[in-house]
Amino acid sequence: MKRHQTTIIDIARALNISKSTVSRALTGHPNVNAQTRKAVLELAEKMEYERNMLAISLVKNKSFTIGIIVPEFMTTFFPQVVIGAQEVAAKKGYNVIISQSNESYETEVANAKVMLTNRVDGVLVSLTKETRNFDHLKIFQRKGIPIVFFNRVCEEMEVPKVVTNDYDGAFNIVEHLIQRGKKRIAHLAGPDSLLISRKRLNGYLDALRKNNIPVIEELIIPYDLTLEKVKIYVKYLLELPDPPDALFAINDPTAMEAIQIIKAKGLRIPEDIAVAGFSNDFASALIEPGLTTVSQPMREIGKTAMQLLLEMMDKEVSEWKAITRTLKAELIIRGSS
């Protein structure tokens, strides 16, 4: 049996009114009286009417769809950012297409192509750890499609960005460890390709220098965010002739993995070695001991990025400005330090 989708013609026939009146009632036009609008809306719901967004998009040259590209969904950070972004988009009548790149540059390129194919009106992007070429994202600029970066941003593209104060957050957490009497503070750093990695590393280094603590290269280990490697690097640090008395990790998943390894070695946290992370992942308060970390306003990042994108979509390309919004990250002290 052929499926029939209710149209405005069906509603018009049932109510014995014109289809233009039905259309105006459905879109909230002021020239339709309240009683007629009420009858149209009630019947539309009863008949399970769905607006033909494809037809509307062809008329208005808009898809009413926004793309979001994130590098991973393994932690709570990106899902929370997406929730914040969706809340803002929904209030403005936009649907959202979400894709995650699994920390793969090639997948990110493919995801960008999907967004273009689906004719998104704008896109939010957070880069993978592998991304060093941005041609696939510059296409959006050339086509006049607004793009906003968040958290992991592209420095060479002059577009809006939403970040947290990664440098200050790292500086403050390392200074906290120093104030707790720690002097050999190791750092499991992120890949150099990411600006957040470099900012957090610089915050770590400057906190040491300010407090006249020597920078020891063997205590600084950049890694590719693959948690399987944390065991190798933490084991290396703990087996040094003079092991560290604290560890600052690039993010909370790294720090929490390190805590499990340290505890398995029979060491006390924070007495033998303190541990600190970054982002305030949901599980960071549940692990034993609770993880000292830097709290990032995850949902606010998503909301701010989406607001910037919507503002661009309401303006001519010539009016777009490469604004950078920096949100505050706050130190959260728990039992691990």
Automatic annotation (TrEMBL):
GO terms for molecular function: DNA-binding transcription factor activity; transcription cis-regulatory region binding. Keywords: DNA-binding, Transcription, Transcription regulation. SUPFAM superfamilies: lambda repressor-like DNA-binding domains, Periplasmic binding protein-like I. It holds the Pfam family LacI. Residues 6-60 form the HTH lacI-type domain. PROSITE patterns: HTH_LACI_2. It comes from the Bacteria. This is LacI family transcriptional regulator.
